């Protein structure tokens, strides 16, 4: 019988919700012997400022990305998973997560849900998770619930 989830992609940004998503993916990976692919997507700073960014700012961004990936490694180390890959991508988070999942022929994408404030809180998912649901045609998507940050 074929493993239902051979390759799992996890969107991870270090938030409480993404940590829960990674934990769920690790549980599945442990159960099914899946390969995990943890993806951190950094939105390029020039998207916000519209002009070239000094190297020092880019260096700070890379340092922050490394710290976030270290958080993911600490979580995954608590599980018996043979193959975990960590990737830092630059671009629009939902697009990069979907591109990665498509490129590696993933069977499942796991992402956390961000809280929405106001009247629509119970109706809307976070923009990244909503976009992934809309973009995903042939890949299952698991969206973990929002949890209040504890850090």
From TrEMBL:
The family note in this entry says: Belongs to the universal stress protein A family.
Pfam families the UniProt entry points to = Usp
Mind telling me which Gene3D superfamilies this protein's record contains?
A: HUPs
The protein's name: Universal stress protein
UspA domain sequence ranges = 5-143
